[in-house]
């Protein structure tokens, strides 16, 4: 069996987890970075889209409901199904992965952005208008800063979703850490299955936690002092 | 990693995350739109398949009887997960939010958040190393769904206005009575939305477990991907999607039926 | 600042030559109709608001007083009629720019919680592109003016302040850009009664120096009497039931509606506006040595109140702590008779 103290998960004559990681560390580092970067771009895109869309619709409850329902439809569809539907259309490349991840990340961010903007105290808006602030200035200096904590909370959820869905996106083509999981699934019970699966879980979870911590930092540094509890 | 936001923000965020912005109405013709659209899509897809010249591989992949069997299996697994979720996560959520056990809630929430960061795919792969079959898949996916619903149950119960609870206690209602007649009805929107999301996610991830031999439409999907048959991929994806939408729709109907009248338009 | 009860006598002179004097506002047949409603929210109101005065719009809930006020800075657009400020038609000006020239204080205060006190107060000056130094100096000046020590309060945040303090900041914020006109919508309504009285008195002291044109909405008639140079009692649709000085309204209410508003005790309320200084004092006698004392600056209402409280018909009047005379119940009643005669003379004239 393995050295004392090493995690031994393989069956038969596979490597121990530590040995396997050492052997493949270049690949692992590459795919982890790729996974994290792709997730990051998707979250960024979702954030920008969510805020833009929210700013356009938040003042009308009908439009807000419409926007959320439209995005919700995409949310209900299984990600794997969406990937599957796009493969024939856009091919087996990043073009089929990026839109799906962004769509999924969009919903929590959009919901929170809309609710955050809608829940600004109307007295504050009245005071702002009454003192001669233009609509744009009101949005930029008052409403968005006040809604920011709620928006950020939504983005935090989006980030977790994005990281998970990028993993599933490996079904489309060789991107990210999901590949290890799919490879393991395809070869269940063989030598390095467990190592691959474990690698996927651990590293993806690590990326997820890293994003969450990053959000905590962002929240600490961007929440206006007057709003902290 | 705390989920404790300020109260008004917590309410806004929670409501936003879980209930959506649309008001609930009582049942009407509009509710049949979703199943109707699904039926149309399925019909269209079937017609599309029939008009295409399928090669030998595709024909075997898209055999009607096989697809039907897989669909039924898929539904069964989803229902099993639903049962587990409702039967375990919700009571657990209740237990953890009782006055005496209140301190456990943040710990559970933390574990839940961390647990969600681990990808389903990976866990299935790990488990698949030593356990296969219907229950393997059902339990893993159920665990995920349970984490989500547990979190929502906790948050949903926590956000019931404490003044309301105070009034109920002051009136002399027993803790059980308060739970069933005050807390639950008020938390239904949040719990319900969470349960629906979790179920939809479960339906969505069953295909990932097809290598573990649980059945479901995932087999066809992966077969199509493996053999590069776009028609198969499209068909399987579409049916999975429709299934998810219908589950969500059914869940929404049930939730609306269970939402007390007083807060139906909340 | 709040120690000196240097409460001014009701200012009557309009627009003195000081730089801070306000400008006149004229409403000419102004109406506001909302589509689909039978009666107008504001039905053809016309009034002149003299420069440098506090004009109170008082009336029951829903009478349209707030709507009327909000048309002056175009938060609500009038359906017909014209409003001019210092001769300029407000509709001809850019609405956003117009509002920067008008101070606006609301009941819920509306301080921005994510900005410091200094940032809140400096908002309008910054929008008007004032230089940084001038803005900072102005912020400090305004904070002092409302009784908040600048060094202590500049960097604080709204949630650290009490309701009364927050509204002081609200007033400072409205005064920051030195607008000639101020609109105040039940500004002290959200403050507890004790602090409300203090805020009212301090505001009157500030206004005494600045002499801005102020339109002040309230549903509290006592506040109207206390704060107003002129009061417009409004009925439904903002119809003016009476537009006159507090003394006139108290002495000669125009109709049953106004009487109802004034309520019982009009005479007593009237005495709140009369100062002891207007009464001829009697010399102090030895019998008065044990009498309770009352300051020369007190109102006749206070004098009567003290007499009843102590069950004495005679009080000693003091100025700067020293007795300068005495006043008897008969003197107060004589003054009441004088006032009544004046009122009747006016009616007959």
Can you describe this structure in just a few lines?
With 229 residues, chain A is mainly α.
List the helices and strands and how they pair.
The complex is a heterotrimer of chains A (about 230), B (about 270) and C (about 350).
Chain A: H1 17-23, H2 25-57, H3 61-76, H4 79-90, H5 94-118, H6 122-130, H7 135-168, H8 178-186, H9 193-222
Helix pairs in contact in A: 2-5, 2-7, 2-9, 3-5, 4-5, 5-7, 6-7, 7-9, 8-9
Chain B: H1 7-19, H2 33-51, H3 56-61, H4 64-96, H5 104-117, H6 120-127, H7 134-158, H8 162-170, H9 175-205, H10 218-227, H11 230-258
Chain C: E1 25-32, E2 42-49, E3 54-58, H1 65-72, E4 80-85, E5 88-89, H2 95-100, E6 102-106, H3 117-121, H4 123-127, H5 132-145, H6 150-153, H7 163-175, E7 181-185, H8 193-210, E8 213-218, H9 221-227, E9 230-235, E10 239-244, H10 246-251, H11 256-262, H12 266-271, E11 293-295, H13 300-310, E12 314-319, E13 322-328, H14 329-348
Parallel strand pairs in C: 3-8, 3-9, 6-7, 7-8, 11-12
Antiparallel strand pairs in C: 1-2, 1-4, 4-5, 9-10, 12-13
Helix pairs in contact in C: 5-7
What does this structure look like?
The complex is a heterotrimer of chains A (229), B (266) and C (349). Chain A has helices spanning 17-23, 25-57, 61-76, 79-90, 94-118, 122-130, 135-168, 178-186, 193-222. Chain A has a single domain, classed as MetI-like fold, CATH 1.10.3720.10. Residues 1-12 of chain A have low confidence and may be disordered. Chain A is built from nine helices and no strands. With 266 residues, chain B is mainly α. Chain B has a domain at 78-263: Orthogonal Bundle (MetI-like fold). Chain B has helices spanning 7-19, 33-51, 56-61, 64-96, 104-117, 120-127, 134-158, 162-170, 175-205, 218-227, 230-258. Chain C has 349 residues and is an alpha/beta fold. Chain C is built from 14 helices and 13 strands. In chain C, helix 13 links the parallel strand 11 and strand 12. The radius of gyration of chain C is 22 Å and the shape is globular. Residues 1-20 of chain C have low confidence and may be disordered. At the A-B interface, helix 3, helix 4, helix 5, helix 7 and helix 8 of A face helix 1, helix 5, helix 6, helix 9 and helix 10 of B.
């Amino acid at each position: 069996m393995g050295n004392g103290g090493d995690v031994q998960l393989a069956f038969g004559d596979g490597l121990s987890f530590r040995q396997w990681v050492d052997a493949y560390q270049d690949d692992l580092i590459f795919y982890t970075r790729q996974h994290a970067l792709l997730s990051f771009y998707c979250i960024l895109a979702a954030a920008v889209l969510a805020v833009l869309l929210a700013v356009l619709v938040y003042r009308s409850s009908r439009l807000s409901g419409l926007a959320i329902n439209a995005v919700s439809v995409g949310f209900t569809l299984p990600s794997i199904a969406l990937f599957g539907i796009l493969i024939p259309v856009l091919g087996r490349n990043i073009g089929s992965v990026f839109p799906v991840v962004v769509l999924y990340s969009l919903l929590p961010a959009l919901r929170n952005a809309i609710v955050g903007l809608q829940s600004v105290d109307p007295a504050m808006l009245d005071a702002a208008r009454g003192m001669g602030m233009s609509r744009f200035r009101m949005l930029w200096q008052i409403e968005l800063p006040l809604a920011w904590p709620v928006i950020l909370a939504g983005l935090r959820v989006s980030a977790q979703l994005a990281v998970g869905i990028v993993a599933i996106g490996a079904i489309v083509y060789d991107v990210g850490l999901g590949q290890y999981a799919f490879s393991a699934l395809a070869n269940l019970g063989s030598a390095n299955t467990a190592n691959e699966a474990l690698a996927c879980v651990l590293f993806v979870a690590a990326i997820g936690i890293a994003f969450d911590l990053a959000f905590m930092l962002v929240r600490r540094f961007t929440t206006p002092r007057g709003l902290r509890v | 990693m705390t989920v404790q936001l300020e109260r008004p923000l917590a309410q806004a965020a929670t409501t936003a995350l879980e209930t959506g912005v649309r008001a609930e109405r009582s049942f009407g013709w509009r509710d049949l739109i979703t199943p109707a659209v699904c039926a149309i899509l399925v019909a269209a897809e079937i017609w599309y398949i029939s008009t295409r010249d399928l090669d030998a591989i595709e024909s075997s992949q898209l055999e009607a009887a096989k697809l039907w069997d897989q669909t039924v299996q898929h539904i069964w697994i989803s229902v099993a997960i639903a049962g587990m979720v409702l039967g375990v996560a919700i009571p657990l959520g209740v237990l953890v939010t009782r006055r005496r056990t209140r301190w456990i809630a943040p710990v559970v929430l933390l574990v839940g958040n961390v647990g969600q960061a681990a990808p389903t795919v990976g866990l299935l792969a790990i488990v698949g190393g030593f356990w296969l079959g219907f229950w393997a898949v059902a339990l893993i996916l159920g665990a995920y769904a349970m984490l989500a619903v547990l979190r929502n149950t906790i948050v949903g119960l926590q956000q019931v206005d404490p003044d309301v609870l105070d009034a109920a206690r002051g009136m002399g209602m027993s803790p059980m009575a308060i739970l069933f007649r005050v807390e639950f009805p008020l938390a239904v929107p949040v719990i319900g939305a969470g349960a629906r999301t979790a179920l939809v996610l479960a339906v969505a991830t069953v295909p990932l477990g097809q290598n573990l031999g649980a059945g479901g439409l995932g087999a066809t999907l992966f077969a199509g991907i493996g053999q590069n048959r776009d028609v198969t991929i499209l068909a399987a994806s579409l049916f999975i999607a429709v299934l998810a939408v219908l589950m969500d729709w059914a869940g929404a109907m049930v939730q609306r039926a269970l939402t007390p009248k007083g807060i139906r338009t909340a | 600042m709040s120690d000196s009860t240097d409460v001014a006598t009701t200012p009557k002179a309009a627009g003195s030559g000081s730089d801070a004097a306000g400008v006149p506002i004229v409403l000419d047949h102004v109406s506001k109709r909302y589509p689909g409603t039978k009666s107008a929210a504001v039905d053809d109101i016309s009034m002149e608001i003299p420069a440098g005065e506090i004009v109170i719009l008082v009336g029951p809930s829903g009478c349209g007083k707030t709507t009327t006020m909000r048309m002056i800075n175009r938060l609500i657009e009038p359906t017909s009629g014209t409003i001019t400020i210092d001769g300029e038609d407000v509709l001809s000006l850019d609405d956003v720019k117009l509002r920067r020239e008008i101070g606006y204080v609301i009941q819920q205060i509306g301080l921005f919680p994510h900005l410091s006190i200094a940032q809140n107060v400096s908002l309008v000056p910054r929008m008007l592109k004032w230089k940084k130094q001038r803005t900072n100096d102005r912020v400090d000046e305004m904070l002092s003016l409302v009784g908040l020590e600048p060094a202590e309060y500049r960097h604080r945040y709204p949630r650290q302040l009490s309701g009364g303090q927050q509204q002081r900041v609200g007033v400072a914020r409205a005064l920051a850009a030195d607008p000639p006109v101020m609109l105040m919508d039940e500004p002290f309504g959200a403050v507890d009664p004790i602090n409300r009285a203090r805020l009212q008195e301090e505001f009157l002291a500030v206004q005494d120096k600045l002499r801005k044109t102020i339109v002040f909405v309230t549903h509290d008639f006592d506040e109207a009497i206390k704060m107003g140079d002129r009061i417009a009692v409004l009925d439904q649709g903002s119809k003016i039931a009476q537009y006159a000085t507090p003394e006139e309204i108290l002495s000669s209410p125009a109709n049953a509606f106004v009487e109802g508003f004034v309520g019982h005790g009009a005479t007593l309320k009237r005495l709140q506006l009369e100062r002891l200084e207007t009464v001829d004092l009697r010399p102090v006698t030895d019998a008065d040595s044990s009498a309770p004392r009352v300051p020369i600056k007190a109102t006749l209402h206070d004098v009567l109140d003290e007499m009843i409280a102590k069950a004495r018909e005679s009080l000693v009047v003091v100025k700067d702590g020293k007795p300068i005379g005495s006043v008897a119940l008969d003197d107060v009643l004589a003054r009441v008779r004088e006032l009544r005669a004046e009122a009747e003379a006016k009616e007959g004239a």
